[in-house]
């Protein structure tokens, strides 16, 4: 504990303020979900309307009296604001109310701390917490900040505040060093996948849109999924076989939220790098959410902030089981899949998502018939090994005729391995001109 505060409790009075500025507004419904996800019990909600926050207490003296009465009436030990508080506002409120005060950033950090499971996830959360706490030290140690002066009456040489600052800086530096190592390891893995020409697909989306449920349904993984915000934090990678493409690596990333604190985006940069380097982003959207367009905008803002806004995207409208809607694929003007409507919960439309992934990721797929001589058994075996043979029959002389469909890249690699030219087996319409 970096400064003396009253003990925290689980029963909380919530505070939400409406501001005329649309960009400064928060969603009270989402706020209640955040509180529930953190494990707190919401006793009551205090609402207010202001043109701008009060510089000292955020809500002003009148609402402060009302808030104090609510704490007594509900015997609550905690106040949670649906807004970011400055260090001085937070300290002033705690002094006036004699209880713990938490702002929106602190609430999200608490949820993250509960959900992180891997070593990397815990490091990222701790870094964000320390960056957050470091701005609040001054208000906590004002009683120890002054040093006595004069001969024989000097202080210990370093105040408690300075000691804590030094310890914080040391720990933050150590975490940055460890996370740099994690980033290097991830970069090595990404380079290895690139050398093997394995595409990566990252699931992104607003928190609680159903990303982990969809991830589990596609990859038969066992990632924790629940109807709550930030159910999963730690990135998970799994192999997925896609028709006409072969194996791809699918990544489940942390969910986004409205006004996601910038420090959290910075702390989770290593995790979000999977989205930046992906061949395709699958943006999972809760189709039944009335605020889905706002949520889509928030996700796009974060993607732009981390530099992933230029990565090709496939939208997935999830949770159609809550709507009177059938699975379908919406296509753009060029006929390419743009949006897939499905339900990850009951599995309807998953086949359409597989189809859309195949169309979006397939790189120059070739489809032709191939007549082989008996001595070309290695070529026949290689095509079967690639799962490229759709049908096989024999002519009157007993020679196998294969109906083949596979990426041109895989066919070229197979022919190079056998020491033969690919074009000699392709019909003229599929041969690449020499100037290419």
UniProtKB/TrEMBL annotation:
This protein's source sits in the domain of life called: Bacteria
- What PROSITE patterns has UniProt attached to this entry? G_HFLX
Q: Which InterPro entries match?
A: EFG_III/V, G_HFLX_dom, GTP-bd, GTP-bd_M, GTPase_HflX, GTPase_HflX_N, GTPase_HflX_N_sf, P-loop_NTPase
One Pfam family it belongs to: GTP-bdg_N
Q: Report which residue ranges the record marks as coiled coil.
A: none
Entry keyword set: Cytoplasm, GTP-binding, Magnesium, Metal-binding, Nucleotide-binding
- What is this protein's function? GTPase that associates with the 50S ribosomal subunit and may have a role during protein synthesis or ribosome biogenesis.
Q: What is this protein called?
A: GTPase HflX
Q: Which organism is it from?
A: Halomonas cibimaris
**Organism lineage string:** Bacteria, Pseudomonadati, Pseudomonadota, Gammaproteobacteria, Oceanospirillales
